[in-house]
Amino acid sequence: HYTFFPGTPRWPEDRRDLTYAFLPGNNLPETAKAAFTRAFQRWAEVTPLTFTETSSYGAADIRIGFFSGDHGDGEAFDGVLGTLAHAFSPPNGMFHLDRDENWMVEGDVTQASVSTTVDLESVAVHEIGHLLGLGHSSVEESIMYPTISSRTRKVDLAADDVQGIQILY
Ligand code: TQI
Ligand code: ZN
Ligand code: ZN
After folding, report:
1. What is the signed CA dihedral for 83, 84, 89, 93, rounded to 10 degrees?
2. For residue range 38-58, what is the model confidence (pLDDT) as tens digits?
3. In ligand 1, which atom is closest to the CA atom of 127?
4. Could you tell me if 18 and 61 are in contact, meaning their C-beta atoms sit under 8 angstroms apart?
5. Which CATH number is associated with domain 17-168?
6. What is the ipTM of this complex?
7. Ligand 2 ion local residues (Cβ < 5 A)
């Protein structure tokens, strides 16, 4: 079953059109940006929320960046596997990913055979759930279930995810 963070934080009623930005300097390939766009779209489809990319990192509601190891927020990344990414509850908007993962996007044949490959879109859908206020779920099929095996692609919201997010929004 879905859970919320303590105090049930969510984006307020007057902030339903959210912006997101990529850390300048990360220089993400368009294929990676498209994976984030698809991940946001999955949540937009089942809520009144919209997500629009902006070039203004400092002003964006959701700020996406790839970092290695200790990156100044007290939650250091740990190299290949282990922690893949973290995101904070609303209205924080920080969404950090471990630069040292072998990130893969759909259709990427060069990464597909790497044993430690992690599907970017799957992790993004999960972390956006946290950014919107969902905690972990006990339902194994849900996006918010707290484990995923490496090389797995899991991007479709389960009924449990939809029920949880529709209570918040
Ligand atoms: N990162 C953890 C996660 O997002 C960080 C975390 C632990 C966390 N406990 C939390 C975040 C409580 C918010 C609230 O769950 S992770 C998965 C999954 C991770 C894990 O790198 O371990 C995914 C990132 F669910 F598959 F295990 C993405 Cl999809
Ligand atoms: Zn961080
Ligand atoms: Zn999680």
Report:
1. 140
2. 999 999 999 999 999 999 999
3. 4
4. yes
5. 3.40.390.10
6. 0.95
7. 73, 75, 96
